[in-house]
Amino acid sequence: LQVPCVPSQPAAGSESRRFANKHSKKALKASLTLGILLGMFFVAWLPFFVTNVTQAVCGCVPAGFFDVLTWLGYCNSTMNPIIYPLFMRDFKRAMGKYLPCCRRSGEPRPSAISLSMRNSNSGPRAATSLKNVL
């Protein structure tokens, strides 16, 4: 009698390790992105809020210093559209699809109707009813 060898056990183990490894890399990248975004937010806005409270309590903060800290916070808001595409592939694809400066030459420009149809949760019936309305 011969007992057939079942090779599924080692393959399943390596597959689960590969799956766990892939998800741990994604989790690490998400943590890194979130850490950078929150870190930049705190570095930019925390001095502004501390100074704002200090100004309310004692009124001893020079106006120029307060303006510099306000603009530091504005710079953080300016950096967000730069940071998101650097770290998020899906965000980069979405922006490339809708911004004319980032679209590839072969891609068609989406129309306003296709955008509204894509954003609504309606099926093909909405397209026919939209044609009837127009």
From TrEMBL:
UniProt GO MF annotations: G protein-coupled receptor activity
Record's subcellular location: Cell membrane
Gene Ontology terms: biological process: adenylate cyclase-activating adrenergic receptor signaling pathway; positive regulation of MAPK cascade
Span of domain G-protein coupled receptors family 1 profile: 1-84
Top-level taxon: Eukaryota
Membrane topology, record value: Multi-pass membrane protein
SUPFAM superfamilies per UniProt: Family A G protein-coupled receptor-like (SSF81321)
Residue ranges crossing the lipid bilayer per the database entry: 27-48, 68-87
Keyword Membrane: yes
Cell membrane is among the record's keywords: yes
Record keywords: Cell membrane, G-protein coupled receptor, Membrane, Receptor, Transducer, Transmembrane, Transmembrane helix
Cited Pfam families: 7tm_1 (PF00001)
Protein name: 5HT6R protein
Organism: Trogon melanurus
Gene for this chain: Htr6_0
